[in-house]
Design goal:
Strand order of the largest sheet: 1-7-6-5-4-2-3
Shape: globular
Number of domains: 2
Low-confidence stretches: none
CATH class of the largest domain: Alpha Beta
Number of helices: 11
Largest sheet: 7 strands, mixed
Number of strands: 9
Length: about 325
């Protein structure tokens, strides 16, 4: 019998998942593991411009992987002829490349895997395996969505440890961003541990994600992005307009001014590097190296209003000029 009484539960808005028809897992890399196992792939092509966890997943799944190059517009520089047991992984970088996803889907068809970790609101193409990572866009401890028509038959247990990964979210509200940072890093490292089995999304994360006002967040992120772009476009070496209906995770400001990242962080605008591992994989003359070194992912979070965005702009103008 269900238990009643005792302590109250969090009062959360009871809505729906944005990706209602997707498989709900706990992390993006578990989505990739799921696909590799379900499709029984033997090799995967992955971009140099990606995070360390992607080739690590291939190693854990005991399959071969091969890096491919992109240009400074995030386009693969060549096409590949895949064998039947091979897959091609592409990331919709910063939600700016939906047209490239469509083009690659036409080339690789069901052997394409789309990583939409940076493009949560982008709709999946029917018949194309696609996954999303929720914590890149929303204040949740974990959670991921997977679209595929090939299902694993093995039993998958549910994650029951999301409550232990909430400290950085709570401390950020109660104390400060700086106070929450160590807990945030610890959470990311915990989620990246590959010795954990594939797990379903936890009850806590499900309830949190079902309580989100997705439309208002969409509007705020687009508004903040366009506000930054209207002021920074001329100084941004990345000449890609935000596609129609795209919802950005960040504003990718590409600028090679010396010490720009250091000075932004020194003034409490925390711009991470995507990704440090690229410097080990690529030489300094490759586009991926330049992109990792010089893209400043400026925040366009839904919690930020016009005043906040203006403060970021004012700081940037001071540094650039």
């Amino acid at each position: 019998m269900k238990s009643f009484g005792n302590c109250l539960e969090l009062d959360l808005r009871c809505g729906k998942h944005y990706h209602e028809g997707a498989i709900r897992l706990n992390t993006g890399h578990h989505c990739l593991q799921y696909l590799i196992k379900a499709k029984q792939y033997k090799k995967i092509y992955i971009p140099y411009y990606t995070c360390q966890i992607i080739p690590d997943v291939a190693k854990v799944c005991n399959i071969r992987y091969e890096f491919y190059s992109i240009n400074d517009m995030f386009e693969p520089v060549k096409d590949y002829r895949l064998l039947s047991d091979e897959a091609f992984l592409y990331t919709d970088y910063y939600a700016l490349k939906p047209d490239t996803v469509i083009r690659l889907a036409d080339i690789y068809k069901s052997q394409l895997i789309v990583d939409n970790s940076f493009a949560f609101y982008s709709k999946p193409i029917p018949g194309i395996d696609t996954f999303y990572t929720a914590r890149k866009f929303f204040g949740v401890p974990d959670g991921a969505y997977l679209y595929t028509d090939t299902l694993l038959t093995e039993n998958i247990e549910q994650d029951k440890l999301s409550h232990e990964r909430m400290m950085h979210l709570l401390k950020r509200i109660d104390v400060s961003i700086e106070a929450a940072h160590a807990d945030y890093v610890a959470n990311e490292l915990m989620l990246d541990e590959l010795d954990r089995p594939i797990q379903k999304m936890s009850n806590l994360t499900e309830k949190l994600l079902m309580g989100i006002d997705y439309e208002s967040i969409k509007e705020k992120r687009i508004e903040n992005y366009l506000f930054l772009d209207s002021a920074l476009k001329n100084d941004n070496l990345l000449k890609i307009d935000l596609p129609k209906d795209a919802v950005p995770m960040i504003y990718p400001f590409l600028n090679s001014k010396n010490d720009l990242r250091k000075r932004l962080i020194g003034n409490k605008v925390y711009v991470p590097t995507f990704w440090h591992n690229v410097f080990d994989w690529c030489s300094s003359d490759q586009p991926e190296y330049f992109l990792s070194e010089n893209i400043m992912p400026l925040p366009v979070h839904q919690q930020y209003d016009r005043e906040t965005m203006s403060q970021i702009l004012e700081l940037l103008n001071t540094i650039l000029n």
